[in-house]
Amino acid sequence: MFKKYTVLSVIFIVVFMYLVGTVLFDSDIEVVSIDNHDSLKNNIKIKEDNHYIEFVSDIEKLSEVRWIEDKSIVFSEQNDKENTNNYKFDYLNKKIIKINSFDGAELCKNLNGDIKFLKKIDDKQMFVYLKSKVNNGLFILKNNKELVKILGDMIYNDKLLFKISSNNKKIAFFDRKENAIKVLNLNNKKIIKLDYEADKNLLENFTKSLQFSYDAGYLIVSYIDVKNISKSTFSVFGADSGKLYADEIMGLSPVWANKNLLIAFIYADNNAKLYKKDDTYKVMGNRVGIFNLKTRKIKYLDSIKREEIIAPFSWAKDDKFLYYLVRNVFTKEGFYKLFCYDRFNKQVYIYGDYFKGENLECFPDMNIINNNLVVKGKVKGENYLKIINLQNRKFENIYEVQEFLTDCIKNYSHIKSIYKSLNDGTLFYVKNNLLYLYDDNLKYLIYRSRGFITHIIESPSKEEILVISKVNDKYEFAVLNLKDCKKYLKI
After folding, report:
1. CB of 45 closer than 8 Å to CB of 32
2. Which of 188, 249, 283, 287 could cysteine-pair with 267, CB 3.0–4.6 Å?
3. How far from each other are the two terminal CA atoms of the chain, in whole angstroms?
């Protein structure tokens, strides 16, 4: 009897394992072996869904990935001999082709050395800062071929000494020879000099101390006195003329409005404080000021007792509202409230329930994306997002958000993000290797990775994104169509 049950048990286990194996095999994605001797693979199996195409390669070292204009993706593999193999993923025709080079998609061959800065100007141009023995300075790379030098050595203690306006029309930089701040107009190539004395502290915080207005017509230069914060000031110059429009306003962390010549700041008095965390400064105070550059007048909001205002601020898209976070000075971990100043009604509204019972570690950042206010911080050492809908005031807390990269370019020091936004206000974030999308106040689960998501890279047309994951030490590629995502996956 015992033997009979033993045999039946063994048969049951074998059948069960076979069925499980069959299910797993059918649901699994085939690993595509990219043979270095093959120039073309037409018979690869690529998984296709309603809104994405994906495959898992046998690549273990990925050195570079780029989109090209025909909606294909080129990528480089670094093998054990430190050689590079290049491939083209034609996902529309479901082909992977070995290529000799990036077919013009790779960065210019003259870009030898470390890339310290990259910023896209348009589809044919980008800013590149190179540091090498041959090339050292800021360049414009045209059509991925022509390298035009704009500025020379712009590094101080490994920090960049230039600031590019958001519309890419002007560059503020530090001239070492004349010990002066200058502004370069890229349209007419004219350079103007600001009558401002630069010190060591400004050089250490150059990019954070300078801010162009929304149209790049004006430039804020901030002076932060780390020893006596109440003596900190900011001045406003004309970015075309160099004319001084506002001299040494007692304020910290000034922020331009989006469409108006308004500047919100924290009043620099004896109540202002400066905290240093992770090599960055955070400013707190108890009074908000709004400077109108046209009238040269400052409106101060009522000071807040026993509470601290946290910079920076966030302006609404139409500049009607100004949002800022406030915390109780007696709460160690920080109990935060959201304040909103209505510029037209001249009223301050308090939304305290958003953070009730939460212990956000100092110090959160805040940004407005489309109709959502996004607060980024940490809770118990983990990345945290709070997304507040500014229209209906509903919100969502998202804990343990994963970091990812937004590009893959060799010799470039990348900065990881915990969310990514596109120009249309679309917002992405990753949790538990699931990729979520926020758009038009709706939430979508658009992709489930079998591994660990490492990159999210948008296409030049903004219609697709490339999601790269690590699956058992191999790289998985998935191309998602954003329009189709919204048809199927609303949650």
Report:
1. yes
2. 287
3. 54
What mean pLDDT is predicted for residues 322-346?
82
Q: Which amino acid is at 387?
A: I
CA angle 453, 454, 458 (to 5 degrees): 95
The answer to whether residues 432 and 438 touch, using CB atoms and an 8 Å cutoff, is: no
Q: How far is CA 150 from its chain centroid?
A: 25
Q: Nearest CA to 183 among 236, 130, 250, 259?
A: 236
CA distances from 317 to 282, 301, 421 (A): 24, 21, 15
Q: How many CA atoms lie within 13 Å of 418's alpha carbon, on the beta-carbon side?
A: 19
Strands (E), 390-426: 395-399, 420-421
Tokens of 435: 């990729």
The pLDDT tens digits of the residues spanning 49-106 come to: 667 888 877 788 887 888 876 678 888 877 666 677 788 888 887 778 777 765 544 5
**Residue scoring higher pLDDT (301 or 304):** 301
Please report, for residues 49, 148, 490, the alpha-carbon distance to residue 443 in angstroms, rounded to integers and kept in the order given: 20, 43, 6
**How many Å is the Cα radius of gyration of the chain?**
27
Using an 8 Å Cβ cutoff, are 428 and 435 in contact? yes
More confident of the two residues 465 and 279:
465
Which two tokens mark 386? 């709070």
In sequence order, the 6+-apart residues with CB closer than 8 A to the CB of 139 are 127, 128, 129, 130, 147, 148, 149, 150
Residue at 43: amino acid letter:
N
pLDDT at 82: 64
What pTM, to 2 d.p., does this model score? 0.81
Mean pLDDT computed over every residue of the chain = 80
Burial class of residue 195 in the structure, from the number of CB atoms within 10 Å of its CB (0-12 exposed, 13-18 middle, 19+ buried) = exposed
Least confident of 52-66, 368-382, 445-459: 52-66
Element at 245 (helix H, strand E): strand 244-249
Measured between alpha carbons, how far is 117 from 272 in angstroms, rounded to an integer? 33
Confidence of residue 128 (pLDDT cuts 50, 70, 90): confident
Contact criterion met (CB below 8 Å) for 73 and 66:
yes
Cβ contacts of residue 308 below 8 Å, gap of 6+?
A: 273, 284, 285, 286, 326, 327, 328, 329
